[in-house]
Amino acid sequence: MSQTQSATWFNMVGKKKGYSLIALFIIVQIILLRHSFGFDDENLTSLKNPKEKVAQPPASTSNIELVKQSPIIETEFVETDPKYSKFVFENRRIPQSMKSGETVLVISSVVNEEAYGKDRTFDDFFGSIIEQEFPKNSMSLAFLFGTADEYLKAQTYFKKYFKPLNTISDHDKSQATVLQKFVRRVTLINAPFIDDDFSVDRADRHLDNFQRLRRRTIARSRNFVLFNSLQDERYTLFIDSDIVKFESKEMLKIFIESKKDIIVPRVQKGGDLDYDKNSWVGERTKPNAEELAILDKNDWDHFTYVPRDVDANMKHLFQLYNEGRENEYKKQGKDKNSAESDQKIKLDPAYSVQIDSVGGAVLFSRSLIYRQGIAFPPTYIIGTTWDRLEGYDGIETEGLCYLAKPLGYKCWAMPNLVAQHDTG
What we know:
Belongs to the ANP1/MMN9/VAN1 family. InterPro entries: Mannan_Polymerase_Subunit (IPR052086), Nucleotide-diphossugar_trans (IPR029044). This protein has helices at residues 3-37, 41-47, 122-129, 148-161, 170-182, 192-196, 211-227, 251-258, 289-296, 317-332, 367-371, 397-404, and strands spanning 52-55, 72-80, 83-91, 104-110, 139-145, 183-190, 235-239, 243-246, 262-268, 280-284, 309-316, 353-355, 362-366, 411-421. It is an alpha/beta fold. It has 3 domains: 10-39; 49-243, no CATH class; 280-421, no CATH class. The protein starts with a helix and ends with a strand.
């Protein structure tokens, strides 16, 4: 090698070493900056997606240990055709070990601001949910909103309560602590296209002539929020937004410990001790020949048939409650008409009766059932043929047991457990 070539080679090596030192210096500075600002690999990964927003963990967490956990991850998804939006809060502060086991997804559909009942808001409804005595660290929440206003209000609500606890007022801290410590994921959905096909005043929603289209909309809503939010949760609990109170705070725990497939409690609305009449066991009417002929023509403007109870062969939950109460008095040898305190009995809250159909005001199920394709029929499935667009019975929750039964699943009522419905 010549002297000139040797000089050139050493110059190249020197430059490479210089580049290497510069690169090493930059890497060290990045590491130091990441450490200073509290970034970890998970944060950097999530920041690559512009739709994801990361809330920093609190500096102080009062009486619960959240500082060492990951932050809240916010993700938004927007679809244009049809138009709907989904906003997800994932609580990474909860340790992975607390996310397994008896996991529950609580679901509700909210048509508009009136759906919570008279003088009630989303805050009131959420408060009734978290009153349940259950290992809430394994609870997820999902809400479907019919209006953009309620959807955005809910976003604001959860953003407020998912903030670091040391930035939250004392008035709100209790609610925020429950949410951050016990709720692993919140899914908010706005899908106005579902309600675009049908709307009715709240006061008229139970009139016969609205039932087919109303129940169809409800079924579509239930299915949409279910399949857009269910992940690894073992159980699913639907609660109507106008349920104001559960008489037993252990209701969810009782459902789970029963090991039953599908369960409903009894629903009271003021003086009506059995409000949700879609929960029943027995026999329903069938269309006559003339009505079936109209059905064969798919002449829905003139098909006015509505399935009714066959009274002699039908029982709803209050009747099942009374039968269970009678049997309990007989079993204990006590007088139900006596005013003496020693003649009173305590009813078993887990008392259950198998039924043919369930309502949806409060509806508990094993999630495995939904994962196999069983859902809420958006059409009347009983009485269908290839020529008919739909049949004459078994829509929405009333079709759930009908579909689940051939797969070996059973529906149950627990009439001693009571949920209170808004009286408005």
